[in-house]
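The records we work with from here on pair a chain with its fold. These numbers are not coordinates but entries in a learned vocabulary of local backbone shapes. To see the layout at work, look at the sequence and tokens printed below:
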Amino acid sequence: MTDEQLDRAVRDADPYRPEHARSLHGADQILLEEIMSVPTIAGRRPARRWAAAVAAAAAVTGVLAVTPLIGRDHRAPVAVRPNPPAGRPVAAAAVADRSPRLLIGEAGWKADAAYGFAEHAGTMRFAKGPLKLEINWYSGEHYDSYYQDRLHVSEPTPATIDGWPGSLFRYSATRFAVMLRPRDGAFVELGTASEGWTRAEFDRVAALIHRVDVATWLAAMPPEVVTPARVQQAAAEVLADIPLPPGFSAASLDDLGTNDRYQFGAQVTGRVGCAWIAEWVRADQAGDQAAVEKAATALRGSHRWKVLEDMADDGGWSEVFWEVADKTVRSGPPDGYEDAIGCR
């Protein structure tokens, strides 16, 4: 695949690419601006070409975290950090303990998307019939920047979720979002993620949202969502036909948090890919041709990894991963590959 073909594939996989800008409005336009322009939040930068397929992921304090607010396909690819920051191991249970654990207290609502792999960053999306509601949380240090951005959407009105004060912003007649003030190091933004909402229905559902303990929150996740207790079983399935790099252990995946299957597959393959590329670089620098060929064989074989084959029709992650792997085999890791598959 040529660079031009990859760029075209990446654009096709991105529902918020620039040529769609004129058809967007309200919340969609705000999301477009967050993805495609230079935001005010420290540490976030426009995506490089290699990272275009993960443009819906925002770099927050060095960890890439998904930031979809309204109407984004939850299966869009995400980039993942291969390891926790040095000296700061992140246990999955601790992540859940520090995350704002909010559920909708009404029968019929089901979590159909989840990606939480940073201490204060993550997303849950709930669905009931045609209605979808998304809950995002971020590090509290970014609250002011986000709040200033939302002032361009509408005048804020006071709102409260389970005693947690915040501000409601109206994007359109059917798009609403509430930004809750920072608490326990994080702030929450929750909003409609589908058509069909009315303000009255949003207010009714918002009044049913409540905070729960870790056990209740994790128990509410459907089987399709990989919770900390399911990580090793899910990892074994993903890694079944994948050769592991030297020193790589499935136990290192225990910090991935709670994610739906697509995001989990992206994170696991991202870590494996990063480790194989690191091994290729090490062996190449050491003049160890046998090790270079072993790493190259593993990367070349990624085209046959079942998890990537299964994910290929659901988002752009597989295609970008394969392009990085192929270029590494041919001539070494391409510029920007760290952003593309999360080797940071």
The radius of gyration is 20 Å. Residues 1-92 have pLDDT under 50 and may be disordered. The chain has twelve helices and 13 strands.
